[in-house]
Structures are given as structure tokens and as C-alpha cells.
Amino acid sequence: MSQGFEIDREAFGQHAVRMTAHGDDYAAAIQRLKERGYAEGGWGDTDGLLSLLMPAYAESVCLGLLAHDRLSAALRRTGYGMHEVRRNIDDAEPAGFTDASAYGRQEA
């Protein structure tokens, strides 16, 4: 291009792949945390003072994991969106190089 801005398609495509992979890795890490459970019984005090705190602790852990799960989905969607942008650029760029005479006389 002689003016404006240019997108390095190869680098953009690599970053799209990385963003999608980060989302997948993040989701896998969150899944492992979910499989571990919410650690309610890990304190060894099922009928004492801490038993009053366990439900609130489990709920806060659950909400935290849910928030991180949503973040991993956003990372993946961003990666997919970047792939779509790359495809759109690949489709649109050739149209910019078509013969101007194909559109008839152009007034400046």
C-alpha cells in the first residue's frame, strides 16, 4: 500500500492462533480446578466453627471459577474473531486491486 495502514496477515494469523490456544489452555486449567472440588471438606472441621464458613467459601470458589470460565470463553471468541478478520482481509484485498475501468468513468 502506498498510504494508510497495513496489517501483517501472517503475524495477525499467528496471534489469532495463539489467542485461541490461550483460551483453550485457560479453559482446561479451570476445568481441572472444578474437578478438584470446592475444598469444603479439606479443612477437617465438618461440625465445628468452620462448618459455618464452608458453604460461603464453596459459593465464592464456585463464582470465581464461573467468572474465569467466562474469561476463557471470551479469549476463545476473540481468537475466533481474529481468524474471521484474517479471512475477511484475505477476501477483501484482491477486490482493492481490481481494474478501476471495470466500474466505468470515475469522477474525482
What does this entry look like structurally?
This protein is an all-alpha fold. The chain has one domain. The chain contains two helices and no strands. Helix 1 packs antiparallel against helix 2.
Please name the defining characteristics of this protein:
108 residues; 66% helix; 0% strand
Provide a quick synopsis of the model:
Helix content is 66%, strand content 0%. The chain is rod-shaped, with a radius of gyration of 25 Å.
User: What's the Cα radius of gyration?
Assistant: 25 Å
User: Judging from the principal axes of the Cα atoms, what is the shape?
Assistant: rod-shaped
Strand content range? under 5%
Give the N-terminus to C-terminus distance in angstroms.
20 Å
Whole-number total of structural domains: 1
Distinct helical segment count = 2
The biggest sheet amounts to: none
Uncertain runs = none
Average pLDDT: 82
Structural class: mainly alpha
Number of strands: 0
SSE layout and pairing:
Layout: H1 9-36, H2 54-96
Helix pairs in contact: 1-2
